[in-house]
């Protein structure tokens, strides 16, 4: 199953707010993720550093393009911009896979 990992950084002092917002992820965003083929999606936090991992039932890059083009996802990016340090349009740094064990 295609997979992707990414890193993000929380703005200083916004850690609790980040956690709160992710306890209340919008149902329509969760449905959109599923509709785009995203599965097994997790975000881990250590201090202000975030590590995300997701899998896709199809081509992961196509799934992310479809996701990023949707107004709900764009609205979520805007909502989260107050708590995240942005890196480019998506606000995240995509990571290259260098090892995998099934």
UniProtKB/TrEMBL annotation:
The keyword ATP-binding is annotated on this UniProt entry: no
Stored PANTHER family: L-RHAMNOSE MUTAROTASE (PTHR34389:SF2)
Spans traversing the lipid bilayer: none
Organism domain of life: Bacteria
InterPro entries in alphabetical order: Dimeric_a/b-barrel, Rham/fucose_mutarotase
One Pfam assignment: rhaM
Single Gene Ontology BP annotation: rhamnose catabolic process
Gene Ontology terms for molecular function: L-rhamnose mutarotase activity
SUPFAM superfamilies recorded: Dimeric alpha+beta barrel
Organism for this UniProt entry: Paenibacillus foliorum
EC number: 5.1.3.32
Keywords, alphabetical: Isomerase
Designated name of the protein: L-rhamnose mutarotase
């Amino acid at each position: 199953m295609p997979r992707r990992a990414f890193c993000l950084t929380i703005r200083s002092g916004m850690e609790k707010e980040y956690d709160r917002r992710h306890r209340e992820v919008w149902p329509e965003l969760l449905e959109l993720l599923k509709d785009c083929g995203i599965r097994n999606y997790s975000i881990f936090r250590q201090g202000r550093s975030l590590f995300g991992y997701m899998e896709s039932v199809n081509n992961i890059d196509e799934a992310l393009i479809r996701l990023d083009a949707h107004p709900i996802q764009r609205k979520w990016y805007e909502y989260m911009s107050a708590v995240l340090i942005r890196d480019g349009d998506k606000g995240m740094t995509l990571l290259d896979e260098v090892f995998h064990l099934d």
